[in-house]
Amino acid sequence: MTTVNTLVVDRADMLRLAQVYQRRGRVGRRGQRAYAYLLYPPDRALTEEAYERLKTIGEFTDLGSGFKIAMRDLEIRGAGNLLGAEQSGHIAAVGFDLYVEMVTEAVGELTGEVREEPAEVQIDVPVTAHLPREYIARDDVRMEAYRRLAAVTTIEDVDDVRAEWEDRYGPPPEPAEALLDVARLRATSLRLGVRAISVQKGHARLDGLQLRKSQEARLKRLVARAQILPGAVVVPVQPSRELTITQALLRLLDEIAPTPADAAADAPIPSAG
Asked: Can you list the domains of the chain with their CATH numbers?
């Protein structure tokens, strides 16, 4: 059993929150007061994420703080596989996603319900999307809000979630609105069969998007530099004063392949002759 009660971590700003938390837990295991010194260069400005990570470690020092740190890590780093295909970060270490999946399967077996495997859409867009602690203070309620949003499959479902949030907590702040937009993009991707969306260097790649000839022509008319590849579409995309990257992608997909209801609403009314 270790008798070390002091830990010094150089360049702690380079470590992920889970890494710092795990290393801090390696000292002070025998009932003695322990000390952890997290150092970073004084001549370098911390990034916003690094500052939030170190601030979180300093705030949560009580025994059993792992869950609260995991919640804060979720806020700092993003929603992970709540809106994508894989989980990462400290929540993976505690097994939350696997636990929820196992409970759902067990309930389905007891009730005889046939569980339909959810389609996965991996979304990687450079936006700040999360539920701020100032908006939903309680960790368990905030996690339930994430879980509810992760289960939506249509734009209407997302609008219902937003209406519920506004009714319970007030108008969603900008990061929460961005999270709702990502959920809308995921729902639209499910409708169109898109498996993954990634944005890099001003271009969005949509894997799995299959377009009819008329839709290809419409895309070329809307975006002259669009590339139609086997099994994927690549389009230039940039945020503007009116639209974020997520909203710009949503508008483009709706213009290329509108829902049947939207297409019917936009169709010209035949004149009686």
From this structure: 1-61 (no CATH), 62-258 (3.90.1150.50)
